[in-house]
Amino acid sequence: MGDTIDADRPDYLIYTRHEPVGVVGAIVPWNSPLMLLTWKAAPALAAGCTLVAKPSDHTPVSTLELARRFEEAGLPPGVFNVVTGSTPEAGRALAAHPGVDKLAFTGSTAVGIQVAQAAMGHLAGVTLELGGKSAQVVFDDADLEAVTNGIVAGVFAAGGQTCMAGSRLLVHAGVHDELVERVAARAGDIRLGDPQSEHTEMGPLATARQFETVTGFIGSAIEQGATVASGGGPDPEQGGLFVQPTVLTGTTPEMRVVSEEIFGPVLAVMRFSDEEEAVRLANASRYGPATGVWTSDVRRAHRVAHALRAGTVWVHSYRVVSPAVPFGGPGASGVGRENGHEAIREFSETKAVWVELTGATRDPFKLG
Q1: What CATH number does the domain containing 44 carry?
Q2: Using one digit for the tens of pLDDT, what is the confidence trace for 296-341?
Q3: What share of the chain is helix, strand, coil (3-state, %, to 5)?
Q4: Selected catalytic residue, list 71, 72, 129, 212
Q5: Arithmetic mean of pLDDT, 68-78
Q6: Short-list 103, 100, 98, 122, CA closest to 113
Q7: What global pTM score does this model have?
Q8: Residue of 19, 71, 89, 163 marked catalytic
Q9: 49 is catalytic
């Protein structure tokens, strides 16, 4: 949909069109690979673009299966394409290819910067959905039972391996101890096991490298003075790449566990005394994909939501998404938005059309 513009030129009909940007390169990570691919493919195809998807070398199967289903559904050849590779070279080649008009990438901030630099080499646009260190802000009038459930959903679902993980818990001092006790108890009851079992609530980490990263963060936090309220390291019963759902208290903004993305089931807890401090702590991050706000005061909920530097603010909930609602964040969390009308605009170019209505001859040396 375009716009009809009532400009300062009454002798012209002026309108805009949104046309396909062209060929889109979609580079997708190993976490939620099918969902994150559809967040790119659906709006890109709806905008009229063609797509070349590069899945993670850890999780290529769902992308290849989707391509097979597209072929069965009758999508014309060359509209949805897949490039696989066991090294980063395939992604680098796609990002740098002069035939690609737009890059859509989900992954780490460091790699996202490299993708943007490669795209800029041939002036291709980018949509980057990058890292996160999201906060859940809990005031002393919140329903702690609902809060506990929201915190567990935010940081332990999917093993914390998501950019929107609510890995920082900011709690009013008046309810800090009670809420920590509730969350720690629920974390200790989480059922670890085979992710294909319907009884499992949390599976293992995806890779050995991720396992080492997460356990390293936990060890570093403990060395820096954090206290373990629940979990604290590898799971002794499951073994393998399983890490216990971990709750750390006594953390400070200077700790790596608070400032850096972990991508694992680790919750860092800090306390605050008033609304101003809560907002300051929540915004004290270079990331900003999402934040949760828990309060029964609707006025405060709106005040805090407006003050937070985040692409998504959930009030009385956490980790809820919809294809109709834009998602993304400022700062080190990326560029542009996925989902919603904004996503289709990300894959289009705006064309302005001027139609002269009078038929009169104009002065060729006068602008307008």
Answers
A1: 3.40.605.10
A2: 999 999 999 999 999 999 999 999 999 999 999 999 999 999 999 9
A3: 35, 25, 45
A4: 129
A5: 96
A6: 103
A7: 0.93
A8: 163
A9: no
